[in-house]
Write a structure and sequence with these properties.
By secondary structure, the chain is mainly α. The chain has helices at about 5-30, 40-60, 60-85, 90-95; strands spanning about 35, 100. It has four helices and two strands. A two-stranded antiparallel ribbon has the order 1-2. It is globular and about 45 Å long. This is Lipid-A-disaccharide synthase N-terminal domain-containing protein. Keywords: Membrane, Transmembrane, Transmembrane helix. Pfam families: LAB_N. GO terms for molecular function: lipid-A-disaccharide synthase activity.
């Protein structure tokens, strides 16, 4: 595999990982409150896995530890959403807005 192919993998992973913030921002703007859509966690998982593969290729232990640890968090959040019925097909088909997790209200 050439260096340019690995750079493409790294940039793809970074693009997926960064896209999660755009998705979250758009969902929050539409809801007029801070929300975390399910797509945020899927983009985190796929982007994190892609970046982990790239980090392993680069043999970067700091990058591997950071991305590897994050994967557990993303999987756990998706598991919690599934267990709460947020990701069921019936739930998604009946909603115009994507399923979200609302941010805790601020204490002001």
């Amino acid at each position: 595999m050439t260096l340019s192919w690995w750079l493409a993998v790294g940039f793809l992973g970074q693009a997926l990982f960064s896209a999660r913030f755009v998705v979250q921002w758009i969902a929050s703007e539409r809801a007029k409150r801070s929300v975390v859509p399910v797509a945020f966690w899927f983009l985190s998982l796929v982007g994190g896995m892609t970046l982990l593969v790239y980090a392993i290729h680069r043999r970067d232990p700091v990058f591997v530890l950071g991305q590897g640890t994050g994967l557990f968090i993303y999987l756990r959040n998706l598991t919690l959403l599934r267990n709460n019925g947020c990701c069921s097909a019936a739930h998604q088909q009946g909603e115009e807005t994507p399923p979200t997790i609302e941010a805790a209200p601020s204490r002001t």
